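Exercise: predict the fold of this chain.
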Amino acid sequence: MRNYSLSKKDLILLKNLEGSCKVNYKQLADILHISHTAVKKRVRKLISRRYLAIIPALNLKKLGFIYALLFLEVANDQYLSSLLKKFSQCPRIIFMFRTLGEYNLVALIYAENDKVLDSILGSCMLRTMEGIRKSTVIPISSILLNHFCYLKIPVRKSKIASCGIDCYSCMRYKLDKCIGCPSVIYYRGYFSVSKE
């Protein structure tokens, strides 16, 4: 399969989409000096080839949330595959990177406050899983660039978190040291979805 390369018009289009998940085809057509239909086709092509995703992004710091980087040394590729499968739908993981060096997996995660961060790192997050040799957590004090990030905000709620953890039975949850996973019906935090 031939690699698709971004054209100058693609790059101008992408630059003009920054900071917005709404596409104004007429405005982009004027900037690119092509028809709005051509812009629409170009956007669809970029999306279908996975060069572009038009998604809402949140400023978690503004909402009072905290971030942390989680560095992990995973024993081998088998454990790494297992972790990726288990945590692929985790709403608290913003990004996950495979890295070279001492730590071979890094995750950017969020929590509602320090208590929740301590709880998830101590009981149900990646670092407590089988195959983790060692881990380091670095809380992020401030974001200097790119304040917005995409989150998986679960609307369908279940009793068990996507990673298999049962928040309702967790002692930290019962003692109000944790508000639960955003993907479960017992979650008591910002992203709680009330029943209609």
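Check your answer against the key: The beta strands are 66-74, 93-98, 105-111, 132-140.
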